[in-house]
Amino acid sequence: MSSKVQLFINSATQRASLFYSKTLYFGKVASELTKTVYFKEGLQPPNLSDFELVYWRLYKQFLHASARPKESLALVRGVTKNDWIRYGSYGVQFLGLYSLGEVIGRRNVIGYKNYSA
To answer: How far apart are CA 60 and CA 54, in angstroms?
Structure first.
């Protein structure tokens, strides 16, 4: 019994270590790629006033919606069948693009390659 537990713990430790190392590696790759794009495109963070304006508007809209829940529910109930179909098709398109990105990132249609061997 104890050998099974020890084997399970060793396996879980190896998987966690592999997951951590892959996460760390891909995080560093993403940060370097982001840094390169940031400098090549000449991007800069938004001004503080723009940032405050956007989040202040969101905060006011949230307060307005929470103060009048019946109006908020009426907006949700007012969505027509055509709107649901349109938003559903957008969701399917986003899911397809996400899945395509996953396949490109894995370089394999099903599963991940085992790089530890």
So the answer is: 10
* CA–CA distances in Å: residue 1 to residues 14, 15, 59: 20, 21, 57
Give Rg (Cα) of the chain. Answer: 24
113, 106 Cβ separation under 8 angstroms: yes
Task: Tell which wins on pLDDT, 105 or 117.
Answer: 105
Q: What is the DSSP string of 17-73?
A: HHHHHHHHHHHHHHHHHHHHHHHHTT--PPPHHHHHHHHHHHHHHHHHHHH-HHHHH
Q: Identify the residue with better confidence: 108 or 80.
A: 80
What CA–CA distance (Å, rounded) separates 103 from 111?
9
Task: Compute the distance between CA of residue 105 and CA of residue 113 in angstroms, rounded to an integer.
Answer: 11
| CA distances (Å), origin 7, targets 1, 4, 20, 55, 117 | 10, 5, 20, 51, 20
The CA-atom distances, in angstroms, between 74 and each of 63, 66, 85, 91, 108 are 17, 13, 19, 23, 46
